[in-house]
Amino acid sequence: MKESKKDIVRFALAAQLIVSLVLGFYNIFLGIGGVVIFVILIMYYTKNTTIDEIKIDKAIDEIYSDLDKINQERMYEMPIAMAIVDNEGIIYWYNQAFGKAFKKEKEGLFKKNIITELDFNLTAAIKADEFTFHYEERDYGVVTNAFSDKIHSFELLHFFDITEQSKQRQLYRKNSPLFCYIVIDNYDDIIEQIPSHKRSAILGKVDLKLNEWAKQLGSVIIEYESDRYLMIFERGKICALQKENFKILDEIREIENDEKVPITLSIGIGISESILGIIESQELSHSALDIALARGGDQAVVRQDEKMSFYGGKSEATEKRTKVKARVKAYGLKELIKESDHVLMMGHQNPDMDCLGSAVGLLGACKSLGKEGKIVIREINYSIKSLFDYLLENEAYQDAFITPKEAESYATKNTLLIILDTQTVNYLEMPSLVDQIPKIVVIDHHRRSGKAIKETLLTYTEAYASSTCELVTELLQYFDEKSQLNVIEANALMAGMCMDTKMFTLKTGVRTFEAASYLRRKGADTLISKILLQDDLNTYTAKSDAVKNAKIYFDNIAISTFENNTDYGKVIAAQAADELLNIKGIVASFIILKNEEGLAISARSMGEVNVQVILEKLGGGGHLAIAGAQFPGEKNIETGVELLLTAIKKYKKENGS
């Protein structure tokens, strides 16, 4: 309304000025008189307008002053704890609720540092979208607002008490359901080897123990296939299961039968820090089961997002008698090779005879299918030098090897990358190649870890196999008749198999000998394998020194330390660990090598001690009988001994030995 009146006055003044100017054409005196009157009206209007504006501004200032006073009083009395601090954390103001919640002394917290007084992470609170602060059994959600007085910068902190919400959230998480998948590993062996009139009784015992276990947990268990169960229980029960190391695995393994068929389980449980739906939760648990099966079974895997925890794994992986899986995988691999423009084979860093031998076997398969194959090797180490020289005697293999840098030129969308003798990206000769090539195949005989390569077109991992060469040999048997191995490729595969089995004395099953028989028919000669595995005098002497330094712990475990900066130091460590098993009474051996890179451990076992489980506690892995671990940058060999002894003690405690 006030603005409308101003517009009318302005219009009237403008009209008066126009009339005065028009009159000036007819009578100059009337025109001058009209202009004078216009000037007087303008001055009067301006004066009165300024006075009104001053009055309005004064009224507004009074209103804001009253509001500031009200706000200050209300902010001080508000039930939400608030404080104003500078960038250093010095408290310049806080309200009554803040003082009540956090004041420790009578003089209060004014001018004190919130960071040191309350152990408050101010930087994190400012940066985080959602920040939670725990203080004396209370939880607070913190919201920050920045402001400045043109000289200093301040933060207004709001502390919302969310203790009850946190308790409800914890209660919800504790009672949230977990999916537990259970598989009888060797169900096929039970069906085949145990007579039908005894079979039902044994399976009934398994079923009874699982149902008793479920009852103790207060859970629901469902048999959805003849060898598979799904159990659902509350999340709060998982700690008890982990503490007892899933003793159900031992109870099932101890079920006796006349045929002496060991009965083992694989268990997979998925947990997430995030709130998951039913589908996502069961998928996480199922992936944990897949890892347990890929690692050879007889164990429980608890997957907490990307972190893995392993329990059990006391027995060696059961060798599968059926070769249906090998035939299916062979067909898939053959089709992938045929559809690709290039095929690259790559193994782990510091490749051994098994790694190179399996690559050479697949190289022959690629040639028979009319595809170009290349083997990616960074450098030729002592372990593979003899086999490498043997291959280069033939012109057909002189262009078969490329460096990681050269491999980049082959990295296209239609290139097939076959990873051999490892499943972990960090162990590869060229880890970045995994991101550059979308078509990936993994063939390995090691137990799977949580860091395994996920995005693959085909994965063939069998923990029961003696070597990757054994798996590759089985696959090649199911290729077309044209895919014939030549003698050189057969010898390379045989050498790798001989190395990992120690000339067929360790980790050797029926299928190992069947694969060796196939290679023998293709012209492989074990004498050539023996020659390829020979050591020179310096290596043999260094190996003897490592054996001589061994000390006996826990009555039957040998641990030796030695320093060697040569290229074949790790080979010596592995061979020395093998030699220690020849000593009467030794059931497991560990060699700790110190070199320029740090420390490395090679472990061997006769089967009574699971060296893989022990070294997994130190970030390593492998098999029940063969395992290794590395400590890059660690130079103190005594530290390595202490860490190893701690891991062994923990293993013995978990297994009650």
Automatic annotation (TrEMBL):
Keywords: Cell membrane, Hydrolase, Membrane, Transmembrane, Transmembrane helix. Pfam families: DHH (PF01368), DHHA1 (PF02272), GGDEF_GdpP (PF24898). InterPro entries: DDH_dom, DHH_sf, DHHA1_dom, GdpP/PdeA, Oligoribo/pAp-PDE_c-di-AMP_PDE. The chain crosses the membrane at residues 12-45. Its main location: membrane. It catalyses: 3',3'-c-di-AMP + H2O = 5'-O-phosphonoadenylyl-(3'->5')-adenosine + H(+). It is found in: Cell membrane. Residues 565-649 form the DHHA1 domain. Its EC number is 3.1.4.-. It is an enzyme of class 3 (hydrolase). Residues 343-497 form the DDH domain. It comes from the Bacteria. Belongs to the GdpP/PdeA phosphodiesterase family. Has phosphodiesterase (PDE) activity against cyclic-di-AMP (c-di-AMP). This is Cyclic-di-AMP phosphodiesterase. It comes from Acetobacterium wieringae.
